[in-house]
Structures are given as C-alpha cells and as structure tokens.
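testing teh design pipeline on a random one, pls ignore if ur not involved
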C-alpha cells in the first residue's frame, strides 16, 4: 500500500536540492486531513527548477515514462524500481506562483514540504469534477467547516 511516508525520501531530496514544488491531488487531500488511499505522488514544480527537480528524482532512481523534456509537456510520469509513481506537472489549473504563495508548509515525519492550499485544492477538484474528486470535496468540506 502506498502511503505519504513512502515518498519521504523524495521530499527530503527535493528539500535538500532547494527545489520549488507543491504537493497536489491525492497526497494533498490526505495532508489536509481526509484519510483515503493514494496511488501516486503529484507535484507541481516551478519550471525554473526543472533541471534540479529532474536530477533530484533521477538520483533516487526515478525515470521518466517519456524521453521528452518536461517543458514540452503538461505532466510527466516517472517510476522507480519499486514501482512508485510520481506525476510532475509543468502546467496546472492554478499557476505555479499562485500555488506557491498560497501553499501550506507541512511536516511529513521530520521533513518540511509544501502542500496546495485547501482553497486551491477544492477549486481544482471542482474543475475536474470526477467522482473521486467530488467525494474528496465533500469530505474536506466536512472536515474544515
């Protein structure tokens, strides 16, 4: 089973490398208090840090599913040998600088990371409108009323 802690080495590596990133999607939902299964880690990055991010992830054994630079894509999926999956977004429904300014600093074990604000998370989930997004919205609103 995938847990947030399954990615603690990723958070530590990105922090050591001084990469600007924001955790979004399922892991963000869990970090905002709604416990539910997660399948992967989704990150939105500052494109100015693309090389640092990709080098940091490569150092941990993550390889891209496509041999293209992230700047040409919206999202790039990476895997490691243990089949952990990371989706790195170059473009997102909320511009990176807005995500960064609104993000919340959280502790994951002894590592500090940035997670999308609840406001932005609810906005993105409502725009996607998939069944699991609607369930996440309902659960998060119930927790934060």
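output:
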């Amino acid at each position: 089973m995938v847990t947030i802690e399954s990615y603690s080495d990723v958070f530590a590596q990105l922090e050591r490398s001084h990469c600007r990133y924001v955790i979004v999607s399922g892991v963000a939902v869990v970090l905002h208090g709604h416990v539910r299964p997660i399948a992967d880690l989704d990150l939105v990055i500052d494109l100015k840090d693309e090389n640092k991010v990709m080098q940091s992830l490569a150092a941990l054994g993550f390889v891209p599913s496509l041999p293209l630079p992230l700047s040409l894509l919206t999202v790039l999926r990476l895997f490691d040998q243990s089949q952990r999956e990371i989706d790195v977004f170059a473009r997102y429904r909320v511009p990176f600088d807005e995500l960064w300014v609104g993000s919340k600093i959280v502790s994951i074990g002894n590592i500090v990371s940035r997670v999308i604000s609840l406001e932005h998370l609810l906005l993105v989930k409502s725009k996607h409108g998939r069944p699991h997004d609607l369930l996440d919205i309902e659960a998060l609103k119930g927790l934060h009323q």
